[in-house]
Amino acid sequence: MRIKYPPQTVDRVLIFDTTLRDGEQSPGASLNVDEKLTIARQLARLGVDIIEAGFPFASPGDFEAVQRIAETVGSSETSPVICGLARATRQDIEAAAKALKPAYYPRIHTFIATSDIHLEYKLRKTRAEVLEIAPEMVAYAKSFVDDVEFSPEDAGRTDPEFLYQVLERVIDAGATTVNIPDTVGYTTPAEFGALIKGIKENVPNIDRVVISVHGHNDLGLAVANFLEAVKNGARQLECTINGIGERAGNAALEELVMALYVRRQYFNPFLGRPPESEAPLTNINTREIYKTSRLVSNLTGMLIQPNKAIVGANAFAHQSGIHQDGVLKHKQTYEIMDAQLIGLADNQIVLGKLSGRNAFATRLRELGFDLSETELNKAFLRFKELADKKKEITDRDLEAIAKDETQGIDLRGYQLEFVQVSCGDHARPTATVTVRTPSGEELTDAAIGTGPVDAVYRAINRVVQIPNRLIEYSVQSVTAGIDAMGEVTIRLQHEDRIYSGHAANTDIIVASAQAYMNALNRLYRGLEQRALHPQA
Fold first, then answer.
1. Is residue 320 over pLDDT 50?
2. Are 247 and 218 in contact (CB under 8 A)?
3. For 228, what's the count of Cα atoms within 13 Å in the CB-facing half-sphere?
4. What letter would DSSP give residue 270?
5. Is residue 344 scored above 70 in pLDDT?
6. In Å, how far from its chain's centre is CA 369?
7. 498 vs 128, 155, 244, 472, CA distance in Å?
8. Is the sign of the CA dihedral 81, 84, 85, 86 positive or negative?
9. What pLDDT sits at residue 334?
10. Per-residue confidence (pLDDT) for residue 1, from 0 to 100
C-alpha cells in the first residue's frame, strides 16, 4: 500500500499546493508544460507535501504536464505526493490514473457537487443520484491508486446532514482524504470552523481519513477560515503561491505557513502538542518561500501587490520615523518575523561587470532559477550588457534577466528582430518593427499611435494579424535609480481567453515590445492547440 501520509500517522498540517491546477485558472495565468515543470521542482524544494499538478482529462497539455511532473518531480520515495484532479466520471479518473502512473506516490482527487443549487442548476441530479455516484467513483479511483481524495464541491453551502451522508459513503468506499471546499468563498471563520467540527462529530468513520480544506478568497476570509479549520480538526490545507486562483484567488500558502509558524505556541494545543513546543507545524522550508513567490509571479505574469502579506515589497519596509527608530533599536518592536525566515536576505550580493560566469550562475541557483546551459549562456550575455549600463546589478535585476530567458523568446513562434520609435511633444509617435514569422519570413511594417508603445503594438499587429485586445499594461521599476530596468506585464484577450506576457529591459519601449510578443506567442500557441483539440 503506497500512501505517503496514512491518516492515522498525520501529526502536523499537510500543505497541498494547487498553484498548477486551481492557480492556473486565474485569467491570463496560463502556463506551458516547461513552466509548470519549473514551478513543480521549486514546490518540491519548498517542501510541499502534495502537488496538485493539473486536471489530466481537461486537455492534452494538462495531461502531459501531470505526466512529466510525475516522472521528474514525483518518481522517488522522497518525492511529494503528485495529485491529478478528476470529475466523478470514469473517463476523467482513467485519464488521471494514466498520467499519474510514473509517480511514486500518486493521488487521484475526484469531486462532485453536493449543494442544492449546484445539483439543480449545474448537475441536474438528485441527492440520491449523487449519493450513489460519489462512492462508486471513489471505489473506481481506488482500483488504480491507493491514495484517493474526495471533494464535495460547494460543501460550504451544502445541507450538513446530506454532507455527512456523502462523506460517510465515500470513506467506506476507500477515500483516504476528504476535502471540504468553500468553493465560492462564502463562509465566515466561525461558520467554517463549525462545519469542520460538525463533520468530526457526525461522520462516524471520519477518523479513517485526513480532513482537508479548500477555499476561495471572495470575501477576503480564506486564510482566516483555514486557520479556524485547523483548530477544529483539519490537517490538510489546499492553497496556492501568492493566493492566485479563480476570481479573488485561493488561500495563500505563504500566509498560512507563516501564521502557523509565527503563532505555533497558539496553535500547538489544537494539534495535541504542548504550547511551548518549538517544532514546526508544517514540513515547509520557509526560506524557500520568497523565491517560490517570485518564480510563480514571473512565470504567470501576475504581479504581487506591494502590501501583500509575507512576500509583498513593503512587507518588511518601514517609512514612519517612529517605526524606523524602533526597528533600528530592536527589530521586534515592529517586526513579528525576520525577513530571512522567508529567504529574503538583508544584504544582497551585488554583482558588476567584472563578475564572472560562475558567480552569476551560483547566484541564480541561490535565487531559485534552474537554467539550462543555453539559457544560462544567453542570460550571462544579457547580464554583461546590463553591467555596461549599470554600476551595480542587484538580485532583482538578475531575477528579471533569468525570467526573461526562461519564459522569453519562443523560437517556434514570432520573433521580434527590430524595433525603432520616433516621438516627441510636437511629433506623431511612429514605430517601425521587423518580425520573423514561424515560417522564417521577415516582415517589416510601421504604424502611428497615441504614444510610442501604442505605435509599436499597432505595427506588430499589422505584421502578425492575430485579432486581440490589450486589456492590461503595467510597468514596474525593478530597482531604484535612473538606470533601473523596467518590467512590463501585459494581458491580451482573444475571444474568451486571456494571455499574459512579461519582459524586462533598461529601455522600456523594448521591454514593452518583447512583452507583447511573448503574449502574442502564447495566444498563437493557444490557437494551435485549439485547432488540434477543439474539445479542449
1. no
2. yes
3. 17
4. G
5. yes
6. 16
7. 39, 29, 15, 10
8. negative
9. 59
10. 61
Residue 54 has pLDDT above 80, yes or no: yes
Task: Return the SS3 of 215.
Answer: strand
**Whole-number mean pLDDT of the chain?**
89
Rounded Cα gap, residues 283 and 51, in angstroms? 13
Show the 3-state SS of 369-429.
Answer: CCCCHHHHHHHHHHHHHHHHHCCCECHHHHHHHHHHHHHCCCCCCCEEEEEEEEEECCEEE
The amino acid at residue 276 is E
259 neighbors 226 (Cβ within 8 angstroms) = no
Judging by DSSP bridges, how do beta strands 469-477 and 147-153 pair with one another? unpaired
Q: Which three cell numbers stand for residue 345?
A: 536576505
| Distance set, CA 35 to CA 19, 218, 294, 529 (Å) | 12, 27, 13, 17
Amino acid symbol at 509: I
pLDDT digits (tens, 9 = 90+) for 60-69: 889 999 999 9
| DSSP letter for each residue of 311-380 | TSTTTT---SHHHHHHHHH-GGGT-SS-GGGGT--SS---B-TT--HHHHHHHHHHTT----HHHHHHHH
Residue 321: which pLDDT band, with cuts at 50, 70 and 90? very low
pLDDT at 176: 98
pLDDT at position 535 is 57
End-to-end Cα, the chain, rounded Å:
34
Which among 312, 317, 305 has a CA at the least distance from the CA of 474?
305
Rg (Cα) of the chain, in Å, rounded? 25
For residues 530 and 523, the answer to whether their CB atoms sit within 8 Å is: no
Q: Which pLDDT score, from 0 to 100, does residue 331 have? A: 60
With vertex at residue 75, the alpha carbon angle to CA 73 and CA 81, rounded to the nearest 5 degrees, is 70
Measure the CA–CA gap between 280 and 361, rounded to whole angstroms: 32
Q: What is the pTM assigned to this prediction?
A: 0.82
Instruction: Encode burial over 237-267: b for 16+ CB neighbours within 10 A, e otherwise.
Output: bbbbbbbbbbeebbbbbbbbbbbbbeebeeb
Q: How high is the pLDDT of residue 107?
A: 98
Q: Average pLDDT, stretch 122-143?
A: 97
| pLDDT tens figures, 439-456 | 899 999 999 999 999 999
Q: What is the pLDDT of residue 325?
A: 46
CA angle 476, 481, 486 (to 5 degrees): 25
- 8 Å CB contact between 253 and 226: no
DSSP SS3 for 502: strand
Place of cell 504581479: 303
Tell me the pairing of strands 486-494 and 497-505.
antiparallel
Cα separation, 382 vs 137, in Å, equals: 52
Number of Cβ within 10 Å of residue 224's Cβ equals 20
